[in-house]
Amino acid sequence: MAAFTALDLTALVWFAAIWVGYGVLVEKTRFGDRSLTAMMNAERVKWIETMVERENRIVDTAIMTGLQQGTAFFASTSLLAVGGALALMRAPEEAMAITAYLPLSEPTSRAVWELKVFGLAVIFVYAFFKFAWAYRVFNYAAIMMGAVMHEEGSRERMLAQARKAAAMQIAASAHFNRGLRAFFFALGYLGWFVGPVVLVLTTTAVAVVLYRRQFASTALAAVRG
After folding, report:
1. What's the gap between Cα 146 and its chain centre?
2. What's this model's pTM, rounded to 2 decimal places?
3. Which of 205, 15, 159, 190 is nearest to 85 (CA)?
4. pLDDT tens, residue by residue, 49-62
5. Whole-angstrom distance, CA of residue 20 vs CA of residue 184
6. What's the maximum distance between 2 C-alpha atoms anywhere in the chain?
7. 89 and 110 in contact (C-beta within 8 Å)?
């Protein structure tokens, strides 16, 4: 860590604090109950409860397939991103030469550059584990949805099983959202390759964009009606 300047370390702490703080805001606070994610979780429960009334589950199966395919796509994409990040370590001089001409760029050593690239790879590895686990949990949710069987006089029992499946869906969605959040903050992290000031600016910009999508977007307005 001695290779990093005090400004580098401050910017890195800012990056980590914004990423973690935003996740806590959305997932762990009462304010997060007003977010688009929270609203969609409520819609998931409505969907699964509505499924109880249907004997034909073709629509539900199609929805689950779409969710799983989307998760699998991002899992494979994160692996490609890890490979791309590691590839940067093979030719650091060329990449450093490109960033040297950018505004606000600061000179850096090869060792510092490689540590930054390694950090980027770690972010994408984290995203992969989140997407892979989300895919697995979506599979669990599909199995639990399949366990909701129509039986005469057993609606309450069906609803109880359906709500368990909805809870599994919400858990899968939480991991998917964390993986997607890692992708967004990886874009902010790229600013560090130019300089610590740029890292602060790009991290803040990513947080503002994510905040607006969760709490002030047209998608949220559509859900609220």
Report:
1. 27
2. 0.89
3. 190
4. 888 888 788 888 89
5. 13
6. 73
7. no
